[in-house]
Amino acid sequence: MFKKAAPAATDKKNDTASTTTTTVDSLEVSTKEKRATKDLFTDLSDELKTLLELELDTLHYDWAKVLKAELTKPYFTTLKKFLKAEATAKKTIYPPGPKIYSWTHLTPPSEVKVVIIGQDPYHGPNQAHGLCFSVVKGVRTPPSLENIYKALRNDFPDFTAPKHGFLEKWAHQGVLLLNTSLTVRAKEAGSHANRGWEKFTDAVIRHINEKKEHVVFMLWGAHAQSKGAKINKSKHLVLKSVHPSPLSAHRGFLTCGHFKQANEYLQQNARDPINWNCLADN
Question: Which pTM was predicted?
């Protein structure tokens, strides 16, 4: 099923993911997009242009077209004012500003095949970089992601777990790794919940649900299942399980079969399957 990759380390408990450490700030998002997102917002007031500077500079053009109406709604301007106040108060926010919308470049709307929904970005230093469950190389693989790797091995015996938790290669294939909240205050889980991000990411999911067909939604845990409650099951495949956290993964996640089911569904609907086994270092 998979092309064989290099063997993984045997002692994962002591493995720190990679001999070479990457920093979130050093990551570059490669994109062939030449159209300027700013061109979609020529009618904004100077105040709004300043408030939405990050979005105008870093949101992928195609996602900006989809989400344009959201960016000027009262809830989003309120969210942006809150984030500005956090910065003024010298709060450390993760991921760093330029990485908040990295998912929009890695997985444009036309390329979405699979959606995995997380909750908060990781709130430790040099972890979050804009993709749920993913951390940069050199950072210890989070326990939930270790369990995701175990579930993949159950689905595909030749899956080779990488020595890191960097999932960008999945995103490049059409796996949208979307957190419900796109920012968090350092060391304070849930600190940016209920500030407006939820409505924004609801709009992302709503667009995929309404405008695309044959997308696989992986809803792990009660939070993700609530987030995806309105997905049209006649157009898409909805897969549900407990969360991969060590607190719940033993209750069925490790044998949920989601990755194999996703690939079978994509192939049945004339879409290329995901090569989940592309992460292991050569």
Answer: 0.88
